[in-house]
Amino acid sequence: MSAPFSWIEPHPHGIRIVPADSWIDPSQPVDKALVTHGHADHARGGHGETIATPETLAIMELRYNTHDGVVPVQYGETLRLPGGVDATYIPAGHVLGSAQILLEHAGERVIVTGDYKRRPDPTCPPFAVTPCDILITEATFGLPVFTHPPIADEMDKLLKALANHPEQCVLVGAYALGKAQRIIAELRAAGHDAPIYLHGAMEKMCRLYEEWGVSLGELRLVADHSKEEMRGSIVIAPPSALNDRWSRRLPEPITAMASGWMRVRQRARQRGVELPLIISDHADWNELTRTIEDVDPAETWVTHGREEALLRWHQLHQRRARALAMVGREEDAE
Amino acid sequence: MQAFAALLDALVYTNSRNRKLSLIAEYLRETPDPDRGWALAGLTGALDFAAVKSSTIRNLMKERIDPDLWTLSRDFVGDTAETASLLWPEPLSTPAKSDATAPLSISDVVKSLGTMTRVSVATDLPQLLDQLDASGRYALIKLATGGMRVGVSARLAKTAFAKAFEVSVDEVEEYWHALEPPYSQLFAWAAHGADPPDTANMPMFRPFMLAHPLEDTKVDLAEYAAEWKWDGIRVQLVHVAGETRLYSRSGDDIGKSFPEMIGALDVPAVLDGELLVRGNAQGGEEGGAASFNALQQRLGRKTVSKKMLTQAPAFVRLYDVLMLEGEDLRERAWDKRRSALEALMARLSANHFDLSQIVEARDFEHLAQIRETAREDAIEGLMLKRRDSAYVAGRKVGQWYKWKRDPLLIDCVLMYAQRGSGKRSSFYSDYTFGCWDGDPDDGAELLPVGKAYSGFTDAELKKLDRHVRQNTVNRFGPVREVTRSMVFEVAFDSVHMSKRHKSGLAMRFPRIHRIRWDKPVHEADRISALRELIKD
Ligand SMILES: [Zn+2]
Ligand SMILES: [Zn+2]
After folding, report:
1. Which of the two residues, B102 and A101, has the higher pLDDT score?
2. What is the pTM of this model?
3. How large is the ipTM?
4. CB pairs under 8 A between A and B
């Protein structure tokens, strides 16, 4: 009998499931990859076999042209991997197709959350709390200053800015996968029926979301329309386009940015943002700590972001936790 | 407090001066007295609460949150007030917000802050914080500890005030310094049409008379007198009712940095002159002054050491007299005021004052020749003043001219470019350039010597922007490093030794004079050529 949990190994470039000789979210090409969701820091092309939800596989096909060796797994479905490891994909509430992966082996249960949030999102099913022994959690907003306000407040800010400046447009910087579609869906839910203009880089992903049943209303491409037509409209572009030459074709844009980092004034200022929208697809500090309490694992492994404060929180709450990078280093030393 | 907090947030998130002006003006119009007066005082840094310091906030926080979590958060956010505003625990129940209690106003806050002591602050400040949301808490802490960091100068706030009530900014400036927050008389006058504040016996600032560039105009020396334009800082020295103030051009009281001048004037008067420190670079009737660089060492200091007072004593070289012994001379002609000033000199301490010389010339051409020598004396150029000109605030056409000496020119190589702000935020419009530290054909390096963001047309800016984007070799946040492929002819007023730059040199007022699309980079100037232009 080997040591507890020795079958799961964190490495700098991914989490290895030893008996199955497979990896979770590897950053290098491997033979067998389990992918939590389609963001570039988790999904990449070139694996021999890619195991993910059908939505994530569709996103990966669009982004990385992945079509060989794909193995779709539905939410709630359990896949038997070699070496007696069971993998179950559970909704993570992060973006379309995003999943936590529950791994079971020799009576031990490990969950890799991938990226997640606990807020309702019209574009994907909500995070499901699932008991486990080890929770490997993300920590992007792992500082107590990060508390995301209700999204309705932020939609309100956006729509007010639009109403106050009918001769201009509001240019919202948002990631092309997930954030952009969530904002559009929330705008529709708030009763904003007007056409929304898109940067060219957003178009295909929006179409993909619609194919998967997320209605986004009338979307138009900026490139096909004149400055005049766009007055009084919302324009959505990737953050990199906000201060770029591209924005010169817009009617006096008010620059907004949708991100959890907008909670901090200097962060927003550095990016030249006039209208910061605190909207994130990651758990904020309270969601992170609440999730650990809800799942109540015997031990937490913290990765993906700001580990230090979350480790301190564990200490203060008499919980066991380790930062993953450190775990990796310890293993190397042995 | 909510409205003030919203104003601060809106100001933080805009770089546009016009937008800032209209945000403040709108707030001032729509907010009742005395709230708007306190807000104005907060924005201009006129409030000071001795009991509340940054350390007070830190201590309050460390009682409420684990010190490690506080430190990690503070390090990330980079600002104590903002970190505290984000981390302050939301009260579990909304504090007794019965209909009878009005929401906290900025006046309530100022009143409460003003009565806090170092002891009571530990209980009183949390009570205020508990009644506000994160933005409100941020505004409260900034108000209490000073330093708004919203990019609003006192001048901008006054301009916004003038805009809000359609009054002249010069008048606002004139009354401002006589009044205390919350400036009720100022609002009564501007917003409600009351009589202006009575300021005869107050040591207040009077707006400066300024000059237009001469450019191609030629003037008749029978109508205009010429005077050197000294390279120090323009000041106004006011003595009335036993009080003395030293004001800078923006109307800021800089007496603390130059205490020797505060004791120097005992005649009731308002004097206009150039503040200089003793040295050999700039001649005058009563001995020389040091270069601007020497004066700079003394600017912005809150306290001044004895050593500094003896090594670099300040004095004022006088240009004009605005008021004398209760009489306002501003309506009189310049030559009448000049005679009054000359007569006054005998009553002033020669250690602290001298008279700016009149430059005698036969005619305009002769004056032009004299001006040629200006560089050797490290003065900025000449002033031409209409002999019959009254002393009026601002720049009035045809009254005073400044005739700066020709700028110095040097060929530099573009090294880095940064995005501009406001309208220019999508363009790389701020340029850092350098000179060679030896022979470029022998492998010499470029060392940065200055930075400029003006002197080119919009069309040129577009071309420069394209050049930067096509020649980027490195990116550091908003800054791009470019290949060494573009020569600028840079104009500047003077160059000084400086420890801030690796080249050891710093230019004053550098601007792009010409873009030398034609010039190969190895023909750009060397550091040694620039060093020869130092006149320290
Ligand atoms: Zn993600
Ligand atoms: Zn991620």
Report:
1. A101
2. 0.72
3. 0.94
4. 65
